[in-house]
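Weekly structure sync, notes
Attendees: PL, DS, HV (note-taker this week)

Item 1: Phosphate acyltransferase
DS walked through the input record. Source organism listed as Candidatus Thermofonsia Clade 3 bacterium. Sequence as pasted into the shared doc:
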Amino acid sequence: MKIVLDAMGGDFGPGPNVEAAVSAAREFGWEIVLVGRQEMIRPLLVQHNTANLHLPIVHASEVIEMGEHPAQAVKTKKNSSMVVGMQMVRNGDADAFVTMGNTGGALAAALFHLGRIQGILRPALSAVFPTAKGWKLLLDVGANADCKPEYLAQFGLMGSLYAERVMGVRNPRVALMSNGEEETKGSALVQEAHLLLKKGPIHFIGNAEGRDLPAGNADVFVTDGFTGNVIIKLSEGMGDFIKGMLREEIMRTPKSKLGGLLIKDAIARISARTNYEEIGGAPLLGVDGVVIIGHGRSKARAIRSALMRAAEAVERGVVDAIERGLEALPRTTNVSAQTSAH
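Item 1 (cont.): predicted structure, written out as tokens:
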């Protein structure tokens, strides 16, 4: 197993990336290639015991920063850590690419240098979402603000295959985000996508409302990138709001402080159940290679988990499975008459 790690990705620079690479290489025996500015990576690497570990450095002098325009940065920064890493995967010099860097930059670099799996119309950014019934997959969460029904049908297939092969879900339940459970609810896009998903080679259970996502009433939730991105950002904001409000109220009076001590263990267990560090990253599905993208705020534990997700996707043949699965998908959205009939 040879995984490329974007050592420059994330809010905290190369430090957590190097620490995660050392930990994963030591435990699993993988070769992890650290791509980035050698003069910053090497001093950090020598602080660790790397005897018998495979941790080569590939120098890349440029970095795609968080605030840059993704496509423009990928085109102009040809020696960036993202571009160099993606090219290694394309050329067969590595099995997967992992980054905590600019999400749009990772998407653009993957499209330019890996390309799409043959037959895939649009790749999808996914997110692993904490629910009452464990972690579930949501896609797309930002790659495609405007979608066609065929895109959503392919998202359903790709999400189902990833949930089954990497997340270990047997016969994953796939749901389509809508404003009602009935088949006739939703926009024209949702109604046509519903018909295609129903015909696909997946366990499609119909429409899901917003409340079904935190309840975990499906294993894979499909939506367009605009809606998915709003869901993710709203959920992050609500999580921070609730935690802040709870902290504020616990500290308000001596009595509530005592209550806070009594529920301290319960709060710790809730935090563990929703701790993104255990997942680390989520796949960019539909590109011709394994690409895992994590949160910019990730530290070593989360990055190590992202490396594990990459290895699992490689070992379980997610890319090949998607290519084969496309053959069973409906090829047309000529369903307007059917939609009207409903």
